[in-house]
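REVIEWER CHECKLIST
Item 1: Sequence provided? yes
Item 2: Single chain? yes
Item 3: Sequence as submitted:
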Amino acid sequence: MKIFQIGFNKCGTTSLFHLFNKNGIKSVHHSLNGVKISKVIYDNLHKGLPLLDSIDDFVFYSDMEWGQQLYAYKLFRELDDQYPESKFILNTRDINNWLKSRLNHQRYMAKDMKRLNLTMDEVLNYWTQDFISHNKSVNLYFKDKPEKLLVFDIEKDNPKNICTFLSDHFDLRCDNFPKSNYSK
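Item 4: Structure as written out by the authors:
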């Protein structure tokens, strides 16, 4: 059983990681021993290996992004195919708040302007369309598998929804939901 966080960064990825970690669920967030988990997953994909090869001893995987180029959380179809007993959490939030948070986070704008050769307004539009498109794709894919997906709005939803969603497999305590690594 695996649990994959498949929403964007700046939507509570670190908070979700801490929630699972505090509940004794073996979790990995962003990197392991200095190696980005997203890079490992993409390397495995290109080698024809199972996506979690060499990092498969974890239950919860979060912030599977590296260098704004490798977004392993977008491989939710492949993850579901290879790990059919898995559950998925689409972490989300108000798109305007997400954009503001991303603008305040580690020079994301400057990096994407350079990488994509776009103006600031064009990057904001790109991010917006990417966010909308990804969330739509996830919801469409899991439309006939509602038991596998929890859409969790970090600004509105009660963390107990996570406990309920996973209650068949885990006895989680979701009170005291940690708010970690948020942008001011």
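Item 5: Key structural point noted by reviewer: The helical segments are 13-22, 37-47, 76-82, 95-103, 108-116, 120-141, 160-165.
Item 6: Recommendation: ____
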